[in-house]
Design brief:
single chain, alpha/beta, 7 helices, 15 strands
């Protein structure tokens, strides 16, 4: 079965969010929504989430879920905002508890490390109904321990596990990440039927391309992905990924993002004066 997929691309964070609809029942899910954050001024806004919600309203859809592919390190999630506005349930991989246990101490967060701030924790093979369609969870760790790919009909939403064929794959150097695990997770995605539509979580413009793209297929990834296509071997991938990751800087929004996203996108509680603060842990350079 073929869901209707509408993409929303945030050029500030290079993030693709998706509205996925069962055409038969008009039941919908939103995947990886962005809460806009301007870090220099500490300003939040909701334009990206508003666009998603406007599409839900204008199309007369019933929004059942907000699906998070993982706890993002490059943008704040609008999942909690959307939940409060619509009642949709927030879904994430069950191993989010590992991510919470890593980052709660870093931020001295009041978040609970049991995943309870999310509504549904999915394991490999778990299935949720989406009208006449189903949402199947594929556990695809490597970028983070909790990464899920959501398979809905003929579509797979891979988050940061795979990118467009001309860009390759996600980094694997975050806490709990692992290049060898990532390679094996990617093989799980590449084992899906070749006609499966693949929707990636980000697009960055590689040399030679000047338009953003976010949809490809399993067949295209198998044949042309510059990191894993054409029969790339596991040891070669691991060596490449580790060398490449060693050159990468931390994402600009990693500290604001993670302390919010381990709370399902909910901001810290305001102070008695009504102010909301994000924490910036300070360490000495090695």
């Amino acid at each position: 079965m073929r869901p209707d997929v509408q993409a929303f691309f945030d050029t500030a964070t290079f993030t693709a969010s998706y509205l996925v609809v069962d055409p038969a029942t008009k039941t919908a899910a939103i995947i990886d929504p962005v809460l806009d954050f301007e870090p220099k001024a500490g300003k939040l806004s909701t334009a990206s989430a508003d666009a998603l919600l406007a599409a839900v309203r204008d199309r007369g859809l019933h929004l059942a879920y907000v699906l998070e592919t993982h706890a993002h390190a490059d943008h704040l999630s609008a999942a909690d905002l959307i939940r409060r506005k619509t009642g949709a349930k927030i879904v994430i991989g069950a191993r989010i508890t590992e991510v919470q246990k890593t980052f709660i101490p870093m931020f001295e967060s009041d978040a609970s490390p049991d995943g309870a701030v999310f509504d549904v924790l999915m394991e490999e093979g778990d299935v949720l109904p989406l009208g006449a369609l189903s949402i199947e969870a594929l556990h695809t760790p490597g970028h983070t321990p909790a990464c899920l790919t959501y398979r809905i009909g003929d579509a797979a939403f891979v988050g940061d596990t795979l990118f467009m064929p001309d860009y390759g794959t996600a980094r694997a150097d975050f806490p709990g990440g692992d290049a060898r695990t990532l390679y094996r997770s990617i093989q799980k995605v590449l084992a899906l039927p070749p006609e499966t539509r693949v929707f990636v979580g980000h697009d960055y413009l590689p040399a030679g391309r000047d338009t953003f793209r976010w949809e490809t297929t399993v067949a295209e990834e198998r044949a042309r992905n510059i990191h894993v296509g054409g029969g790339s071997q596991e040891d070669d991938f691991v060596a490449m990924r580790q060398a490449r990751d060693a050159t990468l800087a931390a994402p600009t929004l990693i500290l604001p993002s993670l302390q919010v996203n381990i709370r399902a996108g909910a901001l810290p509680e305001p102070t008695a004066a009504g102010n909301v603060f994000l924490r910036l842990p300070v360490t000495w350079a090695a």
